[in-house]
Design a protein that fits this description.
By secondary structure, the protein is of the alpha+beta class. It is built from 4 helices and 5 strands. The protein has a 3-stranded antiparallel sheet with strand order 3-2-5, covered by helices on one side. It has a two-stranded antiparallel ribbon with strand order 1-4. The structure holds iron/sulfur cluster (2 copies). One iron/sulfur cluster binds next to helix 1.
């Protein structure tokens, strides 16, 4: 089992999740393969210890336990696994990072066709 970051994370760049992960397994990709996105973070499924700490911390509600990933984000489980063994780093959070408003959260969900 692992946790999965979905496309709801795209362009959010909040990175609050990385600040609470006890094993530092949430990464930003830094290589040259254009099929692995750099505008979202990805969880290494081999390193994740299923602690759930990142889920309540994500202001965009983008993280799910593997079994609970919404159908429209099914491809993201495989996408997260692609962060294994590639160039990557754990980003730090900007102290001035603003949290999304409820309207922004809803708009992001709608953008991806996700109905919580
Ligand atoms: S806190 Fe959520 S939206 Fe922000 S980088 Fe982490 S997974 Fe993505
Ligand atoms: S569930 Fe725990 S170990 Fe896995 S990514 Fe989230 S904080 Fe890290």
């Amino acid at each position: 089992m692992t946790y999965v970051i979905t496309k709801l994370c795209v362009d959010c760049k909040d990175v609050a999740c990385t600040q609470v992960c006890p094993v530092d397994c949430i990464y930003e990709y830094s290589g040259d393969d254009e099929s692995i996105p750099k505008n979202m973070l990805l969880i290494d499924p081999d390193e994740c210890i299923d602690c759930n700490a990142c889920v309540p911390e994500c202001p965009w509600e983008a993280i799910f336990e593997e079994d609970d990933v919404p159908d429209i984000f099914n491809d993201d489980t495989e996408l997260n696994a692609r962060i294994m063994g590639v160039e990557r780093f754990v980003p730090n959070r900007d102290e001035d990072q603003k949290l999304p408003t409820p309207d922004e959260l809803n708009a992001n969900n709608e953008k991806w066709g996700y109905k919580p």
